[in-house]
Amino acid sequence: MRSGTSCFNGTLYKKAFLRFWPIWALYGAQWLLMLPLPFLTTGLQGGHPGVTTVTNRLAEMAQNNPLDMLMFGTMSAAVAGVVCAMAVFSYLYSSRSACTMHALPVRREALFTSHYLAGLSFLLLPHLAGLSFLLLPHLAVYALTVAVEAALGCLDLWPLTQWLLVQSGACLFFYSFAVFCAMFTGHLVALPLFYGILNFLAWTVTNLVEGVCYEFLFGFRRFPDQLWAAVYWLTPFIRLEQGVQTYYEGSKPYLDDPSAVAVYAVLGAVFALAALLVYRTRHIESAGDVVAVRIVRPVFRYGFAFCAGLTGGVWSAALLSQDSPAALTFWVVLWGVIGCFAAEMLLKKSFRVLRAWKGSLCLGAALLVLCLGVSLDGFGFESRVPDPEQVTQVQVWGLDGAPYDSASSNLTLTAPEDIALVTQIHTLAAGMEDQQYDGRASAEDGTFGYLNLSLTYQLAGGGTMTRYYDGLPIQEADLEAEGTLANLANQFTSDRNKVAEMYGFEEIEEGRLVEAYLVNVWNTQAESYEDVYIDGSAQALWDAMKQDFAEGTIGVRYLLEDSRARYENTCYTDLCFTIEQLHETAPGDRDASETYGTTFTITLTPNASHTLSLLRELGALDDTHVAPAYGVYMDGAEDRYDAYRNADGSIPEDLLYDETRGGGPAGETAPLG
Hints:
single chain, alpha+beta, five-stranded antiparallel β-sheet, 13 strands, disordered C terminus
């Protein structure tokens, strides 16, 4: 009989297709509501006086709507794929239906292909008008939308065609992947669970391992971007959503990475072929089993236990606020053992699994060794400092200090002497694990503070090395003590060339000055802070500020925000400039560009003579409007300023600033320094 040797059976195909027709009907209906229907409702406004506005709106919708819908389309394809797979292969999950289906005089290849294409026909219809794999719901929506756009005079085929191709590719992948998952289970409920877990497994496990490493390894925060890029490719839902994100050049929309959809469409075909190979060797008796393929059961058992250990361990430690490596290790091992027994229960469909204690014990021991190896730095992560000669560039974050204006916390260093200095800082930081932040405190011999540091090395071999250190203690007494962390870090904040790079003067000066204004100016009459705008003198103020910067009287950085020197030499008032800058939408073509506004802020100081003199000439600062000194201001002080109070609780006289020092008049209601 021909159907017994063929790889496709038309009767089985039609039965499965017609039996589950509501699935693709609902799937197609949602797209009818989202694409052609909005055009019709908008077009009905054509009889109103705003016909020009409606026409423009329709043209904009024709250009933007199809691509904007693809983010939703990814989620829709992921859900529709697994629903279709559950429907057409549901016969595998009941012993009676599985035996009945496989008793038919039809080869397994024909059984698989007929049901696979029946499910795909909810999205793809084979052998229609001599063409293969045409999208039935997609094609119907596409044709209707084209007809509606043409009737309304806003036809734009390319965005619609992109939607058709991208959505079809996403559906092909998700459906084929769901079918692949369906071959490994004999339980209907397990299919969507396996499908969802495998879609996000790489991303979830990487996050959990990253969290464990963060707790165990001093200087670690996250895995390299290259690893995360690979993880996103192993997480189809996230990577496809990234690929179909829309960005605009001018008013024209583009997809971020449509090639990603093409890659997953090819993978969909590969998964379909792999599913067929598994189906050919699948045992009929596995219907009802959580894992239908015996060779995969150990992978499921220990993989489930490993994930349970990481998930349960991280969440238990977080829930109980236990941040010690010993506590985290305990919870990871405990939940790993529990997960191993739980996996055995699922596989055997029984609670009698105590005989699996050997495997659970081995899994627990493996997790214990792994946790101890990481926490004891068996890989040498914490002590590794690169050879300066092997570093081509290092990016340093966290050396900007106070005050908090437009000075960036990022420095990119390439000079050998700078790189050598950074490695010295790195060596000191790596040995300060036991001195990390544990609450603000004061040192007996000066102000005490903390440094948050990030280092990213570009190595000569092309690799990168990144370290993060939070809460490194520094104190004012060490600023002049050679070889200390505070002294080495202060060499960057006191280098005027480095500070100029932090402020990014070169990039800012490529733009056009629009306006200048002061923020937090003290009004002595109203006794309140206000902003003061300055008309027509932005360039003169910029030049005066740059002159003060060159003389080192403005833009001075302080590693310790609570230092006495910072309070005495920094105003609470900021000088701000609005800058109009050019952004080239096409690199190298200044005609294809857009302008955008940005704000540059620099904190005033009592010593910035050129800037303060010009501000007084312009009337921005006068007897009523003053620039108060930073620190203790308004009524009283915060706790962190208590160290400066006299024994009776009063503010020392030298902290009451007057106008000549950039502050308001001395007195109880005046802004204090």
